[in-house]
Amino acid sequence: MKRIVIFIIALSLLLIFSSPKAFASVIFQDNFDSGDSSQWTTVQGPNLFQVANIDGSNRFGALISSGSTIVDEVAGDITTPNYTVDLDILPIQGVDKNISFRWVNNASQYEVHFNGEGAHFTAPTPVPTIPFFLSNGTVYHFKLILNGPNIKVLVDGNQLFDVTDPTYVFSGHEKVGVRVSTGAAYPTEVWFDNIVVNSIDPGVDLNVPLLKQTNPLWGSLIYDAASSWAGSKPKDISTWGCSLTSAVMVFNYYGINKLPNGIGLTPGTLNKYLQNDTHLDASKDGYIGTGYINWVELSNISKLAKFQNPGFLFDALEFLAKAGQDDSLLTQDINDGHPDILQVPGHFVVAKGIDSNNKFLINDPYYNRTSLSDYSDSYLGMRRFIPANSDLSYVVVMTQDGVSVGLKDSLGNTIGSPVTEYPITNPATGTGDNGKPASFIYLPKPDSGKYSLDVSSTSVTNYSVTVLTYDASGYHKKFVSSGIVGASDTDNYSIIFDKNNARNDSENQNTNFETTLNDISSLCKVGEIKPLSCAGILLEIKTAQNLSKNGKTKTAAKSLLNAVNKELLALQKAHVIADDAYNILHADTQLLLTLI
User: Fold this and answer.
1) Cα–Cα distance for residue pair 372/374, rounded to 1 Å
2) Whether this model's pTM surpasses 0.90
3) pLDDT, tens only, 72-106
4) What is the largest CA-CA distance in the chain?
5) How far is Cα 577 from Cα 524, in angstroms, rounded to an integer?
6) For residue 403, what are the contacts with CB-CB under 8 A and spacing of at least 6?
């Protein structure tokens, strides 16, 4: 049984924003300005087509005054299976409007037909109808993208159908066609103009502007808060700004040339904006950790900047992260007009095209490199920004490499996309970097509700976890928690998320006596509590645990925990326990007091 794999994208969801520069050549064209239609041949129905001045332009069309009549004209000799057809259609009267294509031996199995029921795609196996209608008296521009077995149909830049027919076989010669028809309803009058057939030669090159992180206008500026984490290493955009500069290239490509404050968007101005970017909790979250860019915050910036950039027709650029190499997804994005930011070892570049040898073309913000082949045709992950009219809600979790973090929904299902952010290498020397790898979990468009976060490690490890919660409008809160975990010790946090208002978000550690005892044991193992004090602190917490089980002795349990808190502070001042250990155990005991 013949099968057609069909992908129908809702008309309102996809607008081709910036056309790629394709490697193409004109195969056939006719604008009928000369009044001549000698390139066209009637292959079905009466010879009714003619050239006439309609609405101020010479057009090619027909008026059919009888029912159940189809008139077809074909032209050209197309010797490639990969080509585009552009044409204007002006329906004047009637119900039926048609486009037929891939004509072989005076026959075509492919047609888009519009009537009072909507838009129909006719092919070897029927395609569901889309509720889209053509109005009489309106000129529509159609574009057909015929790429082997794949057929895309666009109307005025909006994608209507995306159909793949695995039964398609190229015959060696095809023609372009125009059709006017009637059914039970007649007459029908339709006119065609500006018909152009272009080959789709292998390759596409998106018009992404090339920017360099070394540009003297911003290259010497301090990157992020590099003065606090770079030590003796360079601290400028020229060294660390590859992801920053790549993001600006992509934003400029989509027509975002100004920041929300109206200042022109460059790597320098975006860096300053991110350094001072604050939200509900007044935290500065444009960067996370040691210079890692907050990609989700960039998405929020695109939304806030919309009204400063009238040429940008969407609500925002929606951020999506993809770990590992996925050439199929990258190819699809580029063919759809979406450049992607690629993380290569120690660096970021923008993938912006595919050459005639199926190699990915890049904009490199530092080196004079134009092909991904310069990076062995490999990459570690993708950072994608896709134009969208949707909410920007997100949950982002970050911790250091070597610590395992699991985000779960209320049913205990593990959710989110784990992505590792690898350090940037100093490109001037090829040595040194901005820190250690960081582990991220990205959860786009989460539902409101309760989530849990498990933190664990195969060895005793101090950790810090940052959680960012974004509501649908892009406002966010940040929660930073620290602790210690080991092979048999898992810390758990509860996250309350409100999709409509980040002000209602909260995070709480789920602490009990057992988790506190595990923390003490782990801190003793790594030497953050000196051995002579370990046994005493463990005994005091176990005693408080036993006292808390009896209603008559709960007050004594609280008194003991308060005494332990004072003891911990004294031991910290005496350098018997480390500062991290004090902070962890002080937080634990405070939470225990709320449980008794």
Assistant:
1) 5
2) no
3) 999 999 999 999 999 999 999 999 999 999 999 99
4) 104
5) 9
6) 439, 455, 456, 457, 461, 463, 465, 485
